[in-house]
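Possible regression after last week's pipeline update?

I re-ran a chain I had predicted before the update to compare outputs. Posting the input and the new output here so someone can diff against the archived version. Not blocking, just want to make sure nothing changed silently.
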Amino acid sequence: MFEVDPNTVLGWLVEAAEQRRAFSQYFLHDLHLTQVQLDELYAVLSALKDGTVREAEAIERLERSPHWVWTAMAPESKLLLSIDVGERTLAMAQRVVHHVAQVLAPDCAPLFVTDGFREYLTALLTHYGQWVQPPRRQDKGPTPKPRWMPRPQLLYAQVVKTVQRRRLVQVRHRVVFGTLEAVERILVACGWQINTAFVERLNLALRQHVAAIGRRVATLCKGEDGLRHQLSLFQGFVRDTCNGVSQRWSSGKVRLLGQPMNTIFGV
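New output (post-update):
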């Protein structure tokens, strides 16, 4: 496309992103899923690539960077549930988990799998917890105060990776909420082990398709709002339309249809 004002293209991007978000909000609700994987993705630091900044300093900078891309997906259906941009903080983890809880059915508590970022624990406990009255241990004295505890059906596992000098040296699996037997019971139906491979593959696709994340280019979308618009288009058109896959929700369950979008919606 030539001889088009950049501001015109940016306006088209904003309108398309807003339309896609409205479409997603209308259809994504009351989902019954068995698994959800969550992860965070950071933009590549040019100084680290050039070798002018040590890896420890780069990690410290990344923790304060506002441009982390947060993703949540259903690994069985490859359905992208949430994508957002923000700092790597507890508040942002709460926001992403809240969005996932909104699109799930009220009685649905899937198996959540993340990396070792500790703030996910607090965010999941906030949304999938309940007040529990501890039993009395003595006949006399004050009644124990209620405690906020995870629901019995909540399952949460982590994949903790240890990296030294940019090399993966160790991978540990940890069950935070629930039991290992309950987690394996869900995964064995798919022939899987505890993993975050699907959301990590999604992150690779993001780097390949969203220029503001993966490459140092001259783009109008280096800001947070512009990056959100690019990610919204990625979610709506690259992941759904280009793959020829659409979602239909019937009785609260996801069914994948291998038909083009124009066949289903009459476009």
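Follow-up from reviewer: compared with the archived run. Confidence is low (pLDDT under 50) at residues 45-50, 215-220, 241-267. Marking as no regression found.
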